[in-house]
Amino acid sequence: MDAVTRLHRQLVDYSNSLFQEGILDNQFGHLQQLQDESNPDFVAEVVNLYFKDSERLLNEITVALDQQNVDFTKVGGHVHQLKGSSSSIGAQRVNNVCTAFRSFCEEKNIEGCQQYLQHLKQEYYLVKNKLQTLFQLQQQLLSAGGSIPAYEMR
Amino acid sequence: MATPLTLKRVFESICISSGIAGSWRSRRAPRGRRMIRKDAADQQQGDEFQHAAARCLSSYYSVFVARLAIMIMLAILIGLLTVLTWHFTRVYTTKSLDTLAYGLRYELLQRPLLRMWNIVNSTAEITAAQVKLSEYVIKRYNKPATQAEQIQLYEVMRDVTWAMFASRKALNAITINYKNGFVQAFHRDHRSNNTFYIYSDLSNYSIGTSGPYDSNLISSREGWNDQSIKGNISAIWYREPLDPITGEKIGKASPIPPDDLINIAGISQVPDGVASWHVAVSKFTNSPLLSAALPVWDPTTSNKSIVAVVGVTTALSSVGQLMKELVEVHSGHIYLTSQEGYLLATSTNAPLLTNSSTGPNLVKAVDSDNPVIQMGAQWLQSEYGSKVPPGHVIHVQNAKLGHKQYYMDTFFLNLKRLPIVGVIIIPREYIMGKADERAYKTLIILISASVCILVIGCICILILTNGVSKEMKLRAELISHLDARRKAEASNNYKSQFLANMSHELRTPMAAIIGLLEILKSDDQLTNEQYSTVCQIKKSSYALLRLLNRILDLSKVESGKMELENTEFDLQKELEELVDMFSVQCSNHNVETVLDLSDNIPRNIRGDPGRVFQIFSNLINNSIKFTSSGHIIIRGWCENLDTFKNAAEFPTDRKKFGRAFRTKLKQQANNAMNFREDNKLALCFEVDDTGCGIDQSKWETVFESFEQGDPSTTRKHGGTGLGLSIVRTLVNKMGGEIKVVKKNSPGTLMQLYLLLGASSESKQIYDADFPNTVVVLATVGSMERMIISQWLRKKKVSTLETSEWHGLTQILRELLDPISPVSSNGFDAPYSSREPLKAEMTNIKALIDPVYVVVIDIALLDLSSDLWREQLNSLDIFHRKAMFAWVVNHQTTSPIKTELSREGQNIVVTKPLYKGKMIQLLETAVRGKILGMQNRISSTTNEGNGEEIRGSIANYSASKHQKFRKCSFEFSSICPGESSSRREDLIHTMFRERHQIGSSRRDQPCSSSNSSSNQKRILEGLRILLAEDTPLIQIVACKILEKVGATVSVVPDGLQAVEALNRMLAAESSRRRSLLQGSPSETPDTPRFDLILMDCQMPKMDGYEATIEIRKSESEHGARNIPIVALTAHAMNADEKKCLGVGMNAYLTKPIDSERMVSTILRLTKNMPSEATGTTSLVHIRFMPAPQARHYSCMYSVCIEEQLRRKGGQDAKTADDDDEQPQRWASECDDDDVLI
C-alpha cells in the first residue's frame, strides 16, 4: 500500500513537473488517453518510435550540416518531420526549437543551424531522459501492483 | 548686425564641434544651473521645466559663448581703431609740428645771424669809410714834412674819426695805427658809458723812419704785431675822456696802464692788405669784441704801401641781447661760436669770458657755464667731432641732453677769417610738449570712448542675443517635448503591436472558455439554476470576447498590421446576409431594416469581404443600438467616376450625398488617371436611422476611439465607443471616407464611400427582368414596401401595395376575381379614391395573362385568434391564378408555417424582404407558374412543385453562410419526417461524447479503458486513407481514428495514396459496370475510402501534388470528389490557402487534435450520400462543403441544434443567440480557429 502510494505520488509529481517545465504538453495527455486495454503499451510504443525516428533524423541533420554545400531544403525537411513528430508526441520544447531551426534553414544561416542543432539535441535528450524516467516509474508502479494515474490536461 | 550674427553662428558651430565648448560648458554648468533655478521661480513648472532646461543647457552655453566671442571681437575691433587713430594722428601731428618747428628754429637762428651779419657789415662799412677818410686825410697832408704838419694831420684825422665814431654808437672802438707807430683811437666803454680818446706818446716815433714800413719790412712783420705794440713798453699811452656826444675833452689825459690798453689793430693783421676779422676780448667789456682791420694804402704813390691800419671794434653783446630777447619770447638756447668753438654770443647770461692771469679769454662752448649749452656743445662734439667742416648744417630733432629732449640746429656763417657757427637748442617740450600732451590726452579720450563703446556694444549684444537665446531655449524645449511625444507615441505603438501580437493568445483562452461553456450547457445533468448561470457566463464571455476583438482590431489597425484581402466577393450577398442577420434583432426592437441597393452596383467586387462586412455590421449595430423605433435603411450605389461630370443626373435622394465627398471623388477622378487602370469603383453608402441622432458638435469626434455621441449613452446603451473608430479606420484603409451628415428628420445619417476593385465581369446586381408580372405587396414595413415597389416599378413590374388585410383582399378581388363584373365598384371608398392605384389597375388589366405574385406579410394575418385560418382559407380561391409568397418572421410559430406549407403553392420567405429576395421570389414564382401549367397538362399534383420551390429558396438562403441556417432550419423543420427525432438523438449522443472527451478525467480516472461505446460509433464504418510518412503520426492518427470507429488505411507517401485512390476508382467503375450488366461481382479486396487525411510534406510526392492528381483522376472517372483533409505542421494562413487551393476540403494542423479531427471528418463525410456506409442519412446537417465553411462550424451547429432540442425548437433564437451571431462573424473574419 505505502509503496504503491509513494510510487503513485512520485509518478504524479514527476509527470506534473514535466508539464510544468513545458517539456511536455497536452498532446502527451491526449496520447495517454488513447491508450486502453486493447493496447496497454501504446504510449511507450509511440514514444519509442519517436526516439528511433528522432535519432535517425538528428543524425541525418548532423550529417547534412557537415557537408560542404549544405542542402538546406533537406535539412529543413528533416527538421519539419521532427517537428511534426515532436508535436504529435507533445514534446513541446523540441517542437519550439524545431520552429526556430526551420526559420534558420529558410534563411540559410549555417551558424544558426549548427547552434540550433546543438540546442535541438539537448532538448531531445532531455525529453528522452525524462520520458524514459517516466516510463520506468510507470513500470515500477505497475509491477508494484498500482495503476497508472491519469494525466490532467492543462 | 548681420555680420556678428553670422560670425556668431560660425563660432557656435566651431564651439560645438570642438571640445573647447564642452570644457566651457562643463566649467560653466553650475552657474547656468543656478541661473535656471532662478528663472524657474514658478514652482508649478517645477521639475519638468528644470529637466527640460537642463537638457537645453548645451544650447544655452553655446549662446553664452557666442556672446562672449562677439564681445571680444568688438573689443579687439574698437581697440584697433583706437590705436590706429591715435597713431596716425600722432604721426601727422608730429610731422607737421616738426616742419613748423624747423621753420621756427630756422627763423630763430636767422635773426641773430642777421644781426651778426649786420654788425659785421656795418663794421666793415665803417672800417671802409674810415679807410677812405684816412686816405683822404693822408693825401691831403701828404708827406708831412714837419712836425706841425704831422700834428695837423693827426688832428684832422682825429676829428674825422670822431665824427665817424660818434655817428656809430655801437662801435666799441676805432683805431688808427700809423706806419710810424702812432696810434689814435676812440674807445667807448659801454659799461661805464664813458668815451675815451687814446693816443700814444709821440716821442718814440720819428716821422722819418719809414724803414719798417717798407714792403720788405712788411714782409718781415716786425713791429706790426700786436705784441710789439702792446709790448712796446717804451710807448706811453694816453687816454682822455671825452664827452660822448660832443667829443669835447672833459678830462685830463692820463697815461693808461698797459693792461687797460684796448685792442688796436696793427699792420700784422692786414698783411695782405685785405680786411681781416678777429674776435678780441677786452677788459672793458664782458663780451667778445669783433674787430676788423683794414690797411690804408698810400694814395699818392703808385706802389702800394700801407700808411696806416684802421681797426674797428664792435661789441657782440647786442647779438647776445637779441638772442636773449628771442629766447625770452620762445625758449631754448642760442649761441654763436667761432669755428674753433669759442663762444661769441649766447642767449644766456653766462659769462663769455674768463678772467685769467693774462687777461680775459674767450670761453669755449664746451666749457660754458650754462649746462644746456655745455651739454649741447659736448653732444655736437661727440656726434660730429670737434671740427665741424665749414658749411655743414646739422638738424637734430631728438638730441637727448641730460634728461630732456631737445631740438638742435646749427647754421654756418661763412665770414672770411671768422666763420661763425650758430647753434640753437630748443627743448622738445617747447614745441612738442603741447603736441605730446594732446596726443596723450587724445589717447586717453580715445581709450575711454572705446571702453564706452565696448560696454554699450556688449550690452547691445546681450540685449539683441537675448531674444535669440530665448528662442533657442524655447526651441530646445520644443524639441525635447517633441522627443517626449515621439517616445510616447512609440510606446503607444509598441502597445498596439503588443496587443496585435497578443491577439491570438488573448482570444484562445476566451475561445476555450466559450467552447467549454457550450459543452457544459449541453450537459443534461445541469439543474435549471446551473443552466441559467452557465448561460449568463456564456453571455458575459461573448461580451468580453467582442470587446477583446474590437480592441485587438483597433490595435491591429494602429500598429499597421492589418492587411486587406483582395478577393472577389458578392457585395450584395454580403449585405443581404447582414440585413438578414440584423433584422432578427431589429424586429425585437420594432425597427425595420431595409436594404436599398442601386441596380448599378456590380455583382462582383474585389476587396476584403470580411472587412466590408465588419464595417456595415458595426454601423448597423450602432444604429440599432440607438434606434428604438422606425427604420434603418442601408442605401448603396455605385458612383461611377465618369458620371461625376454630370452630377445632375443623380436621383434626388442622393443629391444629399455630401458635396464634400463628391468633390473629393471628383478630384480623385480627375487627378488620378490610373484610377481606371486600377479598375476601382467608388461605392457610396448611407446608413440612415431614425434613432436619437448625434449632436452636430460630435460629428467628428464620434469616430475617435472611446468616443460616444453622448456620455450618458454609455449608461443607457453600453458599448465602448470603439465600433465607429474601427469603422473609420477600415473605411480609410479602403480609400474611403465616412462622416455624419445632416438629416432633416430625426436620426443619424452616415455617409461613406469605399474604393473597391471592380471585378472583371461587369454584371450588375438585380439585372433580372420580369415582364408580364404583377406584384401585390402586402407588407407592414412601409419603408421596405415603398423601396421595393419603387424599384419594381422602375423595372417595369406593375406593383400594387397595401398594408392591410382588407386592402389586400380588395385588390385581389379586383385583380383576380373574374366573377365580379363591377370591378370599379368593388373598391371601397378609400381605395377607389386613389388615382395612382387605379391607373396601375388599368395598366395591369391591359396585360395579357400576367403572372400574379402576391407577397403577404404574415403580420397581416390576425394571429391573436384563430382568425388567420379563415383568412388563409379565403385566399384559397386565388391560388389558381396567383402565386402567394408569405413573408414570415422568426417569431412565426410552426403551426402557422405548417399551415402555410399545406398550401402547396405558397412560397415562404423570411423577413426582411429585399431586392435580392424579391428577384429570387419572382423567379421562383414565374418558374412555378410555368411548372404549374405543365403540371396541369400532365395532371400531377402541386406538392412536388411546392417542394421544389421551397427547396430552391432554401438553397438560396443557405448557399453561402451558416447564418442562414435559421431560415433553412425553419424550412426543414416544416418538413415532416421521422428522421428528425433520430437525428436529434444522435446529435445528443455525439455531444455527450465530446463532452466526455473534454472532461473525461473528471469522471473516471481511466476513461480510455472504458470509453463509451457511443464514441466508437461516431465514425463507425468510415474508411479513411491516411497518407503520412512519419510513423509516429501514423500510429497516433490511426489510434485516434480507430478509437472513434473508423477504419484506417495507411500509406507512407503521396504516390501510394494516389495509387490507392485510383485502384478504388477503378474498382468502383468496374463494379458499376458489373451492376449495369446485372452480374454483381464483389471486389472485396479493394477498399473504398470515404476520406483522405493527407500530410502535406511527404517523400516522393507531397500532399499538394497528390491532391491535384487525385482530383484529376476523379474527374477522369467522373466520380465525386473525395474529401481530403490536409495535415500539416505549418500553422500559417498561407498554408491553409494553399491547401484549399489545390482542392483539399479542410485543414488540420499538427499536433493532431482528436476532437477537431473527428469533427472535421464528421462534417465532411456526413453531408454526402454514402451508399457504402449508409450512415450519413442519419445526420443531416445542412452545411455546404463550401471553401468558406470553417471547421468549427460543425461544432457550432451541433451546439445550436442541441439548444434547439433543449428548448423544444420553439424559441430557438434566444437573445444570446442573436447577440453572439455578429460577433461570431467578426471574429471569424480574421481568426479561424478561435472558437474551437
UniProtKB/TrEMBL annotation, chain A:
Organism whose genome encodes this protein: Citrus sinensis (Sweet orange)
One GO term describing the cellular component: cytoplasm
Recorded domain comment: Histidine-containing phosphotransfer domain (HPt) contains an active histidine that mediates the phosphotransfer.
Entries under Pfam families matching the protein: Hpt
CDD domains reported for this sequence: HPT (cd00088)
Function: Functions as a two-component phosphorelay mediators between cytokinin sensor histidine kinases and response regulators (B-type ARRs). Plays an important role in propagating cytokinin signal transduction.
InterPro entries listed in its UniProt record: AHP1-5/YPD1, HPT_dom_sf, Sig_transdc_His_kin_Hpt_dom
Entry-annotated residues carrying Phosphohistidine: H80
Protein name from the UniProt record: Histidine-containing phosphotransfer protein
GO molecular function list: histidine phosphotransfer kinase activity; protein histidine kinase binding
GO terms classed as biological process: cytokinin-activated signaling pathway; phosphorelay signal transduction system
Signal peptide start and end residues: none
From TrEMBL, chain B:
Domain of life: Eukaryota
Keywords: Kinase, Transferase
The protein's name in its UniProt record: Histidine kinase 1
Species per Swiss-Prot/TrEMBL record: Citrus sinensis
